[in-house]
Amino acid sequence: METLVTLWQTTGLASLSWGAILMIVVGLLLVYLAIVHKFEPLLLLPIGFGAVLANIPLAGMNEPGGVLYLLYEMGIATGLFPLLIFLGVGAMTDFSALLANPRMLLLGAAAQFGIFATLLGAVALNWVPGIEFTIQQAAAIAIIGGADGPTAIYLASQLAPELLGAIAVAAYSYMALVPVLQPPVMRLLTTKKERQIRMTQLKPVSKKAKILFPLMVLVMTLLLLPTAAPLVGMFCLGNLMRESGVVDRLSKTAQNELINLVTIFLGLAVGAQLTASAFLTTQTLGILLLGAVAFTIGTAAGVLMAKLMNLVSKQAINPLVGAAGVSAVPMAARVVNKEGLKADQHNFLLMHAMGPNVAGVLGSAVAAGILLALAG
Question: Where are the transmembrane segments (predicted)?
Fold first, then answer.
C-alpha cells in the first residue's frame, strides 16, 4: 500500500492544482491561436508550449537547474535574447522608404504617444481596488503601446520581471491583432477623400546614405540617450551589416539562423513565466486592458499627426500611413496598404507606410530608453 501511495504521489494527477490546470489551458489556447488563426505564430507557439511545460507538476523545468529556468536566467533576466533579436531585425530592415521621405520620422514619433499615455493610465489604475502598480511596473506596461515585442520584453526584464509573462503575452497578442484593431480607428479618424490621397513617388536613396544612417542614429543615441544604446546599438549594427555589403554571411546569419534560434529560446523562456501565481491576478487584467488602450492611442496619434502635417505640408500625406508608426513591422504597413486599396484600388501605400513603420521601431527603442532612464 505504501508503494502504491508513493507511486500515486509521483504522478501529475496527484500534484496538479487548479491554477496549474488553468495555465496549461491558457498555454494550449496560445498554441491554438498560433496554429489555427496564425496570431504571431513564431512567438505565441513557443510561448504557449513553454507555459504548458512550466506548469507540469514535478517536472522541475522551471526550477533552479531546469531548462526553462536556465533559458530565462541566461537570456531574459540578462536582456540578451531581446538584444539579439534586435540585431536580426536591424539586419532585415530597409530604411530606404524613411530616408526618401524623412518627414515620416514624425509619424513614427507620434505613434509612441500611446506609450506615455499608457504610463499615466497605469498609474491611474492604482485607484482601482486590488490593483497597485509601482512606477517601474507602470513603465514596463506602457511600452506595450509601441507594439514591439522584444522591446517590451527587454524593458519588463529590467524594470518589472514579475510582470514579464503578462506583458509579453499582451504585447504579442495585440501585435497579432493589428489587422483587427487598427482599421476601425483609421476609418473613424479619416474621411474617404483623405484615404484616397495619392502620395508622390519616393526618390531613390544612395548606398552611402543607407550606410551613414545607422551610424548617425548610433552617435545621436550616444550623445542624447545612452540608456537606449543597448537596443538601438544592436539594431544599428544589424542594419550596418546589411547595408555595408561586405559581411553578407553575417547579415544572412543574423536574419535567419540567429534570430530563429533566439526566437525559440525567447518564447520558451517567456512561457516559463506564465505560472498561476504570476499570471492569475487582477494586475494581469489591468495589463491586458492597458495594452488595448495603448495600441489604440498609438494608432490614433499617428493618424492625427499625419492630418496635422497636411495643414503645413506642400506634399499631401495620406493620413492612413500615420497608423504604421506603431512598430509592428511589416504588418502595420500592410494594413495601411489594404485600407488604402479599399478607398482607391489603384492607390498603393505600402512603400510609403514602411517609412513610419521602421521609424516606429527606432521610436519604441528610444521610448524604452527614456522610461528606463526615468524609472530605472
Answer: 12-35, 42-61, 67-92, 104-128, 134-156, 163-181, 211-237, 258-279, 285-304, 316-336, 356-375
* 314 pLDDT higher than 70: yes
Name the nearest CA neighbour of 166 among 179, 153, 151.
153
User: Which tens digit of pLDDT belongs to each residue from 130-183?
Assistant: 788 899 999 999 888 887 889 999 999 999 998 888 898 888 878 878 888 899
Taking residues 84-93, report their average pLDDT: 96
Q: Half-sphere exposure of residue 222, counting CA atoms within 13 Å on the CB side?
A: 9
* Rounded Cα gap, residues 247 and 253, in angstroms: 10
Cα gap 319→194, rounded to integer Å: 7
- Say what the pTM is: 0.89
- Number of CB atoms found within 10 A of residue 186's CB: 22
Three-state DSSP string of 159-195: HCHHHHHHHHHHHHHHHHCHHHHHHHHHHHCCCHHHH
Residues 223 and 246: their CA atoms lie apart, in Å, by: 28
Render pLDDT for 269-309 as a digit per residue (tens, 0 to 9).
Answer: 989 888 888 887 888 888 888 888 888 899 999 999 999 99
Beta carbons within 10 angstroms of residue 9's beta carbon: 10
Task: Please tell me the distance from the alpha carbon of residue 312 to that of residue 293, in angstroms, as a whole number.
Answer: 29
Q: How far apart are CA 200 and CA 351, in angstroms?
A: 11
Q: What is the pLDDT of residue 335?
A: 93
Q: Which residues contact 90 (CB under 8 A, 6 or more apart)?
A: 214, 234, 235, 236, 237, 238, 239, 240, 241, 242, 254
Give burial (CB, 10 Å; 0-12/13-18/19+) of 253.
middle
Query: From the CB of residue 257, how many other CB atoms can be counted at a distance below 10 Å?
Result: 11
